[in-house]
Model the fold of this input.
Amino acid sequence: MRRVGTAALSLLAFGVAWKLVTVIGDYPEFILPAPEVVAERAWRAIGSGILGEHTAVTLLEIVLGFAVGATTAVAIGTALGKSVLIERVLSPYIVAAQAIPILALAPLLDIWFGGGLLARVAICALIVFFPIAISTMVGIRSTDPLLAEMLRSLGATDPQRTRLLEIPSALPVIFGGLRVGVTLAVIGAVVAEWAGASVGLGVLINIANQGLFDTPLMFVALATLAIIGLTFYGLVVLVERRLISQ
Amino acid sequence: MSSQTTLRTGLDVAIRDVGVRFGAPGAGVEALAGCDLEIDGGSFTVIIGPNGCGKSTLLRLIAGLLVPTSGRVTVDGGVPRPGDGRVGLAFQQPRLIPWRSTLDNVALPLELAGVAPAERGARASEALDRVGLHDAAALRPRELSGGMAQRAALARALIGDPPVLLLDEPFSALDALTRETFDEELQHLWLERPRTVILVTHSVSEAVTLADRVVVMTPRPGRMARSVQIDLPRPRPTELIGDRRAAELAAEVRASLSASRALELRPWSEQEGAA
Done:
């Protein structure tokens, strides 16, 4: 409860500071709207159903993209960690794919994957992949060799060693990657929508910003993205606490 | 082992002309050379020697964790393979998996062998009872004292009831008093259910207290220097200081040890077997 109180207090302070800036600066609404203007706009956007419609699509992309990206990343990261040969062969491509800006890659992927939900999930999964794969690899490599020898002396097979020792001992590091990955999933979904979509919070930002010059609505979309990011991050932390009970 | 009326439950272990070399041929380290040792099934053998004489390497060979560079190691006439259920091994460190309870750590060998959860739980708590860790079943390894952790490791090594038990200085990190209790319990466990036990240690008194036979090793490269039969009646008390025969035997072991240490201190070029 104290933690919730602290968070509420910090949110309040943020709102007050924001209000102060708008009062002192006296900015026009299309540059920096006051918090109550944004709140009022959010209320209307929720009422008209427009916010819900766009949020639902983006949420689906984030969940699917993160699920696909994280699962492949843990699987490939495990292989990278266990085999130096696999790492040598694959890592240049993985690093190169990460070094190319996702913004540049997104339109291409959009064409390749047919422009629908699948394309957006693929783009989202790609950006999520890197931190989780690398942290999994590092985690697997940090397995205690004494415990590995102990398991070997008991005749453990390679899959048994991975399941009972390597993955569990890599979990704290993997979760470090998942925390980064889940916030990147939000970015991935928006970038994917910019590359070609007709609904989603990324699309809503574009409409508000360039079509309607409705800056308060853009702020509503941004705040929604922030809330989604915080919620998913919190969920990852929650699962982490559950799984790593030490 | 004519004094033993119980069934012989241990397996014979044979080490014949075994050499182990780590690293590149010609440039590596020779850990063992020309090692010969025949161990009778059901006997208690203690291997003693200075650091770096290859004692742990010897146990790894018998456990099948290591393949000799030359020669042959057999358990009951066959080449040992990890997980074949014939050999149990307790390391110098407890090596418990930190995120598992003590019970689940002890049950690990059964889990790997595909034993059903209910049965392995029951057998693991039985094994914990045997080493006096009944109350620690739910604790995590970090909540155990050093002695308790080592007991858990012993329970894990014993849970499959292996005919051969290898102990690699499992009590070396414990204080002297705890260690004596351990020695007593170990002897008791063995008398209760004789199996082939091979214990590696630095301690002469531990060796004389526990062993049917003490094998003294020399370092670099490790080989068997002497074998001393300990013909004291069992069960033996852990305080053998008053016993004249025990003192003689301890002196004999000590003499062989210092002979091998003297060898260690002699210039490398004069040592037997040096190239």
